[in-house]
């Protein structure tokens, strides 16, 4: 377990998507957060108190979370300097970037000298199994998307909260670095060797006999040329009984690929259902989760109504509207569940 409370590192970020890890931890685990650290050029905040490393330690922080992401998932020169400074101030450091903290000699040396710990959460568990596709007990829901970073983690966490509030056994299963910081467990699925992705999904959501739900955080998109392989592996290994499609209203193009349009919702949903049927022929779509942060409330309601009419599924923004209608449909489709 990563020692808490946390200080969230924003560095010199200026692009909102780059701090989604810090924002996610602050939103879903505020009780674990002391504050945030921003560099001089940072133009963003996640709404927490701003502290230096020394101030954070005085206020009880135990671990600096590197809550930023960039193309390639690398530590820049300034981030390395900051990590060393945080270690010397008395903080452990945890990172979800592809580039490991331990790959930098100056970081390893500072950790050894100060007795602080380094946590690279994008290091997959050892000896993951190869997927086999065999039917296993329990119920599983997977969030899928038209693109990356459209709200799959937020949707999955919102469904966990709603189901638990109704007395249903439900557990969030993290597959990305932000989710792992929030759940304090999980598998960084995009760091798993391709042959083992479906096996990792099976491992994170094993058979369960309590009638409850594993709610599996989706990654990428079957329609994204860069990340479709991860999405497919999750679909097959999760063996989902239910899918929720996630989409951001008004997104101009696939993330990182200007000029490449997002798929139509109906096409995206049908493609995901077809792929999921390889390991669960009875999979059902139970809702559409929209990120409507780019439009006003009236427009968000209008878009939701249009999608409901087109797809025959409940459509909500999990943050602005909740997920009560999607949860209703889920439980209507799967009447056999056990109260906690």
From TrEMBL:
The record's section on Gene3D superfamilies has: NAD(P)-binding Rossmann-like Domain, P-loop containing nucleotide triphosphate hydrolases
Highest taxon above the source species: Bacteria
InterPro entries linked:
DgcN-like, DgcN-like_C, DgcN-like_N, P-loop_NTPase
Give every D-glutamate N-acetyltransferase-like N-terminal domain span. Answer: 52-124
Where does the record place the D-glutamate N-acetyltransferase-like C-terminal domain?
130-326
For this entry, the protein name equals EBNA-1 nuclear protein
Taxonomic lineage from the root: Bacteria, Pseudomonadati, Pseudomonadota, Alphaproteobacteria, Hyphomonadales
């Amino acid at each position: 377990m990563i020692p808490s409370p946390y200080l969230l590192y924003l560095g010199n970020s200026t692009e909102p998507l780059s701090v989604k890890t810090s924002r996610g931890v602050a939103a879903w685990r505020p009780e674990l957060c002391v504050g945030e650290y921003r560099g001089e050029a940072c133009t963003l905040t996640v709404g927490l108190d701003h502290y230096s490393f020394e101030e954070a330690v005085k206020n009880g922080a135990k671990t600096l979370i590197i809550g930023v992401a960039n193309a390639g998932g690398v530590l820049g020169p300034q981030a390395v300097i900051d990590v060393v400074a945080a270690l010397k101030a008395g903080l452990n450091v945890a990172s979800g970037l592809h580039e490991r903290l331990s790959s930098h000699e100056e970081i390893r040396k500072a950790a050894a000298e100060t007795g602080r710990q380094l946590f690279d959460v994008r290091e997959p568990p050892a000896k993951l199994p190869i997927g086999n596709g065999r039917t296993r007990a329990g119920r599983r829901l997977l969030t899928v998307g038209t693109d990356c970073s459209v709200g799959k983690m937020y949707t999955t966490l919102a469904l966990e909260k709603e189901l638990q509030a109704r007395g249903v056994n439900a557990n969030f299963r993290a597959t990305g670095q932000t989710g792992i910081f929030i759940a304090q467990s999980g598998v960084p699925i995009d760091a798993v060797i391709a042959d083992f992705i479906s096996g990792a999904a099976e491992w994170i959501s094993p058979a369960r006999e309590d009638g409850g739900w594993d709610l599996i955080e989706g990654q990428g998109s079957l329609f994204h040329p860069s990340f479709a392989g991860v999405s497919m592996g999750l679909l097959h290994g999760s063996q989902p009984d239910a899918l929720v499609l996630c989409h951001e209203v008004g997104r101009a193009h696939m993330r990182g690929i200007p000029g490449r349009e997002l798929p139509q919702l109906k096409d995206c949903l049908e493609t995901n259902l077809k792929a999921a049927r390889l390991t669960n022929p009875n999979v059902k779509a139970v809702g559409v989760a929209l990120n409507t942060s780019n439009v006003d409330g009236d427009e968000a309601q209008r878009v939701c109504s249009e999608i409901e009419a087109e797809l025959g599924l409940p459509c909500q923004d999990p943050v602005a509207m909740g997920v009560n209608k999607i949860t209703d449909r889920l439980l209507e489709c799967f009447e056999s569940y056990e109260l906690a």
